[in-house]
User: What shape does this take?
Amino acid sequence: MVAADVAPAEGGAASTRAAAPAAPPAAAAVEEDSAATAEQVASSATTYTDAQRKFIRTAQAEFRVDDVYRSALAIEDVVAAQGGFVVKNDIAAQTLNTQRRPMGDGKLLELAEYTVRGRLTVRVPSANTQAFLRAIVGQMAFLDRRNFDAMDAQFQLLRQQLAHQRSQEAQQDLGQAAQQDGRIDRKADVIQARSDAKSTRDEASIAQKEFEDRVAFSTIDLSMYQASKIRKTELTDVEAVFQQNSPGFFARLGNSLRVGWYGVLDAVIELVKPWPLWLLVVVAAVAYRRFRKK
Assistant: This one.
């Protein structure tokens, strides 16, 4: 009897637990919009140094700002303070949506949603890359993306130096050959080869200087944009002005009657143009009637 009483009690407890409602899912956390921080633009790719290695540093960042024009000027000031220079400054407004509503008195109200985007390409001393990025964090309302790259260029730089050295040695050898006695045609070939060697030397020297410049100054591409805004403009409603200055009803009615009358006259003139045909039809009709009377 005791066991019989316990079994239903356990079953009732199980059914009670099964009928209990499930706990509601936890609500998704909402993150407050916050400005970029110095940690978000930090990377060892912009600071690592090695006495035996040369790095070509590049960086790209895209972020939202409060005002593109003000931020562009502020960033240019930071570039100058860091000993760098601006390569490109491109800013343009983009209209996203436009609506127009009549205001009366020949006026239109135009509401346009637009945003402003800008792109800056700057070059700063490679050692100041991290300091520059930290200095412009205050302009970033929100950081969308950033990318840092430090390319090890020690072997490319060595290759440029060796090429320049070979060109120098070839120039010296050709100079000694041109001073030796020999046939005129052979001297002409040596002079031409020496000229070609000078050109190769100059190109190698320029390539080496360009490469050293890329190592000394990092290249940073910055893309910025601002939140969309609404521009309000009052325009002339040309269609409404035309309607206000158009002729009245009776003037338009009189004009329509005049145009219709001239249309009738034109139709009569068109009908009269083939008068020989009408004359032939009349003659044929008279001849036919006389023929039937006979």
